[in-house]
Write a structure and sequence with these properties.
Elements: H1 4-66, H2 73-93, H3 100-124, H4 128-215, H5 231-272, H6 277-293, H7 297-313, E1 321-322, H8 323-341, E2 345-351, E3 359-360, H9 365-377, E4 384-392, E5 396-403, H10 410-417, H11 435-446, E6 452-457, E7 461-469
Parallel strand pairs: 2-4
Antiparallel strand pairs: 1-3, 4-5, 5-7, 6-7
Helix pairs in contact: 1-2, 1-3, 1-4, 2-3, 3-4, 4-5, 6-7, 7-8, 8-9
Length: 473
C-alpha cells in the first residue's frame, strides 16, 4: 500500500532532482565560460610577461658586454632562463600552437635568445666587431618581439570580442531558460498540488457525507469508494465495515431487547408463583419462638440456624461482609447437617481469630462447605469429616475447606480452575451458588486470578484453598 507520506516524499524528490539537474547544468556552463575567460586572460599575461622579459634580457645583455668583469652574469642567466620557460609555456597556452602568428613569434623568441647568446659568446672572445653586431641584432629582435606581441594581442582581442558576443548570447539564453524553468515549475507545482489535494479532499468529502448519513440514522447508504491505494482507502474500507457492523449490532440489540422483554415476563410469572422469602423468614422466626415456649430447644435452635442461613442468603450479594459473619453462617450450616445426619458427618473448625475482621464477598464459605458435603461425603455410607481452617500467612489470609470424601480426578480440578465446568454440576441445595461462581466473584473482588487452589485425588478427598490478599501487601 502506498502512503500519503510516501507520495509527498516522491513529489519532493522529483522537484529536488529537477532543481539539482538545473543547478549542475548552470554550474557546468558557467565553469566552461570561466575557464575560457581565464585561459584568454592568462595568454594576455603571458605575452606581456614575455615582452617584459625580452626587454629585460636585452638590457642585461647590453650591461654584460658594456661592463667588464661580468658582475651581472648571474642576473643575465636568470632572466634568460625565465624567458626560455615562458617560451615553453607559450606553446601550451594557445589552442593552436601551429598558428602562423604563434609559430613566428616562437621562432622570433628563439632567434632573440640565440642572438643574445652569440653576443655574450663573442664578448667573452673579446671580438668587439662581432658582439657589437650581434648586440644590435638582439635589440632588433627585442623590438620585433614587442611588435609581434601587440599583433598577437590584437588577434586575441578580436577572438575575445567573438567570445564576448557568444557570452552575451548565452546570457540571454540563460535568462530565457530561467523564465521557462520558473513558469514550468509553477505549472508543475500547481498541477501536482491540485491532483494531490483532489486525491485527499474527494475521499474526505465522501466520508463526511457518509458520516452525516450515519448520524441521521441511515445505516444502509452506498459504500464509500476510494480509488487511491493509501491510508484513505484503508479509512474508507474501515468506515464501510464499521457502518455494516453498526447496522448488524443495531439489529442484534433489537432482537436482544425483544428477548429480554419476553424473559422478564416469564420471570414475573415465575415470581408470582413463589412464596415471598421474607415472609418465610418471618414465619420461621415465629415457629422458633413457639418451639422455645414449648420447651423444644433443639427444634428452636434448628429453626434459628435455618433462619440465620436464610437471612444471610437474602442480603445484598454485591456488598462484602466480614469473614466472622461467613464463619457464623458455616457454623449454622454445620449445626443443621449434624441434626440431619447425626454421627455420619463430622465438622471441625481451626480458626485464627485475628483473621476474622477481613471483608470478603458474601456467600463465599458456605457454598464451599456445602459443595464439600454434597459431592464429598454425603454419598459415603460411613460419612466423613469436613474441616474449615483459617490462618494467616505473610501476604494472604488462607481459608481451607477440606473433606475426606470421594475426591476428583485431575481433569475435573483443571476444569474448575479454568471456570469451564458446567455450573449445574456444582451448585448447592440451599443457595444455588456453585464453586465456579465463588471463584469468579473472588477474582473480580480482589482483581487477581490466582485466588483459589484445589488439591484432590479420587478416593482421598478434596481441599479447596482460598488465598485472600491482605490490603496494602
Amino acid at each position: 500500500m502506498r502512503t500519503i507520506r510516501g507520495k509527498l516524499l516522491v513529489y519532493f524528490l522529483v522537484f529536488v532532482i529537477l532543481f539539482q539537474i538545473t543547478a549542475v547544468s548552470i554550474f557546468v556552463s558557467s565553469n566552461q565560460l570561466t575557464n575560457t575567460y581565464d585561459q584568454s586572460f592568462q595568454r594576455f599575461l603571458l605575452l606581456n610577461d614575455i615582452s617584459q622579459k625580452s626587454e629585460e634580457l636585452y638590457t642585461q645583455t647590453r650591461i654584460y658586454v658594456m661592463e667588464s668583469g661580468g658582475i651581472n652574469k648571474t642576473d643575465y642567466f636568470a632572466v634568460k632562463k625565465a624567458l626560455e620557460n615562458a617560451k615553453d609555456q607559450l606553446a601550451s597556452a594557445f589552442a593552436d600552437p601551429n598558428k602562423i602568428e604563434i609559430k613566428n613569434y616562437i621562432n622570433l623568441m628563439e632567434t632573440f635568445i640565440h642572438e643574445s647568446e652569440l653576443t655574450v659568446g663573442f664578448f667573452i672572445r673579446d671580438d668587439i666587431e662581432q658582439y657589437t653586431h650581434h648586440l644590435e641584432e638582439t635589440r632588433t629582435a627585442s623590438s620585433y618581439i614587442q611588435t609581434s606581441a601587440l599583433e598577437i594581442i590584437d588577434v586575441e582581442l578580436t577572438d575575445y570580442q567573438t567570445f564576448y558576443q557568444d557570452l552575451q548570447r548565452r546570457n540571454d539564453s540563460f535568462f530565457i531558460f530561467i523564465i521557462f524553468l520558473s513558469l514550468t515549475t509553477i505549472m508543475l507545482a500547481i498541477f501536482f498540488a491540485l491532483w494531490f489535494s483532489k486525491g485527499i479532499t474527494q475521499p474526505i468529502h465522501q466520508l463526511s457525507h457518509a458520516a452525516t448519513e450515519v448520524s441521521q440514522g441511515d445505516l444502509l447508504g452506498a459504500p464509500v469508494k476510494v480509488r487511491s491505494n493509501d491510508e484513505l482507502k484503508l479509512l474508507g474500507d474501515t468506515f464501510n465495515d464499521m457502518r455494516s457492523n453498526i447496522h448488524g449490532l443495531v439489529e442484534e440489540i433489537k432482537d436482544q431487547s425483544e428477548l429480554d422483554r419476553l424473559i422478564k415476563e416469564m420471570e414475573l410469572k415465575h415470581l408470582q408463583n413463589q412464596i415471598n422469602p421474607h415472609f418465610l423468614f418471618n414465619t420461621l422466626n415465629t415457629i422458633s419462638k413457639m418451639a422455645y415456649l414449648e420447651d423444644a430447644k433443639a427444634t428452636s435452635n434448628l429453626i434459628d440456624s435455618v433462619a440465620t442461613l436464610l437471612r444471610h442468603s437474602l442480603g445484598q450479594i454485591d456488598k462484602p461482609v466480614s469473614l466472622r459473619d461467613e464463619v457464623a453462617v458455616v457454623q449454622d450450616y454445620f449445626h443443621i447437617q449434624k441434626i440431619r445426619f447425626s454421627e455420619r458427618s463430622r465438622f471441625e473448625l481451626d480458626i485464627d481469630e485475628n483473621c476474622l475482621e477481613m471483608e470478603i464477598p458474601r456467600l463465599t464459605l458456605q457454598p464451599l462447605v456445602e459443595n464439600a458435603f454434597i459431592h464429598g461425603i454425603e454419598e459415603k455410607e460411613d460419612g466423613g469429616t469436613i474441616t474449615l481452617r483459617i490462618y494467616d500467612t505473610r501476604k494472604h489470609v488462607t481459608v481451607e475447606v477440606s473433606d475426606d470424601g470421594a475426591g476428583m480426578p485431575a481433569e475435573k480440578v483443571k476444569q474448575l480452575l479454568s471456570l469451564a465446568v458446567n455450573e449445574v454440576d456444582h451448585v448447592g441445595h440451599s443457595t444455588g451458588i456453585g464453586l465456579t461462581n465463588v471463584i469468579r466473584r473472588l477474582q473480580i473482588h480482589y482483581k487477581v486470578d490466582a485466588v483459589v487452589q484445589i488439591e484432590s485425588e479420587p478416593g482421598k478427598g478434596t481441599t479447596v484453598r482460598l488465598l485472600l490478599p491482605k490490603e496494602g501487601v
